[in-house]
Amino acid sequence: MNQQQLVSRLLKPVVFIAALVPLALLVWNALHDGLGANPVEAITFETGDWGLRFLLITLCVTPLRRITGWQALVRLRRMLGLFAFFYLCLHFLTYLVLDAFFNLGYILEDITDRTYITLGFSSFLLLIPLAVTSTNAMVRWLGGQRWRRLHKLVYVVATGGVLHFLWLVKADLREPLIYMGILLLLFLARVPAVAQRLAKIRAPAGDKKPAAARQIAT
Questions:
Q1: Which of 19, 29, 40, 211 is deepest in the core (most CB within 10 A)?
Q2: Structurally, how many domains does the chain consist of?
């Protein structure tokens, strides 16, 4: 079984099922009074937290592909990105329906008065065109170069999401700071010199080609 078959037939279904586990646990806890004294707050936090986690995991695919040489890992990226969008949609809908009760005035006041909500809402809006254009048909319609330029916005979205989380948390900052550290490492991995060194990690010992001569996937 080659890389593509292993990823498509084994790893992709496993990741798909694993990505649904947080939702299943959330539903289970909701049905069994396991969400604590403030269920709406718990649902909002869990969906937002998992949405941000999946967003960062999605961004980790390219560095992992460079380090391991497993080009087939790219087959997981779209699915992981859509799971990030899915959980962040649940996050926003929880706020819209269960917290704000569709009160437009309350929502607009929150967006304008609370910086962390301004950031979160703006980041969510930027994520929508990325999800909409994730299909093969949209890649062909936009063209590869324009599609790649558009999808670089994911780094803006991730930055906004991490700052949203950081400014939301008032006491224990460990988790948002860990996410910020991961994001900074991901930005560092995009520096050409660093990307070349990552590619060298998995290069065979006898490979004498200069780093610039080896193709590094974007």
A1: 19
A2: 1
